[in-house]
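User: Hey, quick favor. My workstation is busy. Could you predict this chain's structure for me?
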Amino acid sequence: MGTDRDQHQPALSRTARAKHSHTLINKTIPSILRGNARARRGVEAVELIVDPTRHDEHPTLTLTSSFHPQNTSNTAPQPAPTVTPPTRSITLTISPTLFAASTLSKTPSPSPIPHRTPPPRLAILNMASPLRPGGGLLTGATSQEESLCRRTTLYPSLHEHFYRLPEVGAIYTPDVLVFHSSSSSPSEEQDQTIDDKKDWFFIDVITASMLRFPDLEGDEADIEGRRYAEQKDREMVVRKMTAVMRILRAKGVGKVVLGAWGCGAYGNPVGEIARAWKRVLLGGPGSEQDTVGSFGEMWDGLEVVFAIKDAKMAGAFARAFGPELVVVDQPVTSVPSEEGAEDER
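Assistant: No problem, here it is.
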């Protein structure tokens, strides 16, 4: 793998990418699906889930008490049980989505959910177009969604009748086969190849859309100072994120790759998105978890990785999120040209 973007071969034109995408959709992916029953079942099991309800179960929430049955003769008041807060892992990596997913698939979960069989699932967020399956895949666009559809069996599950995507809700596709992760190809030409089968892996994909072109206030040059002009947009973002997390929890997901959702072509402020994710994941004012005396929907036992390709955006995201987000070193020294253009839509 090269160590500098200048070593990459020239990027494919948009027309060439569109032609390659048509070949993938019409020939390559159908051939892969014919030879892989699990991937076929995943496409068949796709669901459109609208405005999911709250789940109050806490599979890993444990009670710690100083009360012992053998001491029941003691009439002194016993201390009330104390609740051990649920554990979560929230990190940020400067990498493409599928590279982060590939890395996560090879590491054991730090806080597995006890008594759960099968093991917790690995999922990624497809930051999608609300209007068209695959966004601009067939016209050669290079946002995150198009990249996912060129490297996985996701696209056949994105049925036309699911669109327009719901404001609150998502398409959920289990067992999506990744046949080309972003860790091995230094150019778009080589990106057209397929990985050795030993390197294939499965993920679940949740496909959902963020606000498009919201009204903003603040200096356009200040990436961290831009804010939503309307409180209703801030509230809708939290609703969208909460819906995604509810679906992930209901599906038994233990590891998930998220992103700076909507901070690319759709113009959402990175600081607002980071703070919204923090409210949803950790609780706080404006979140569905802001409930006195309750941990609310705290997504206990979940390992969250934010994968953000753009280093400047990743830095702004981390600063807005705060110290609860751990920024990890990224071992990638070179990324494919297509992924280099990947935007968060």
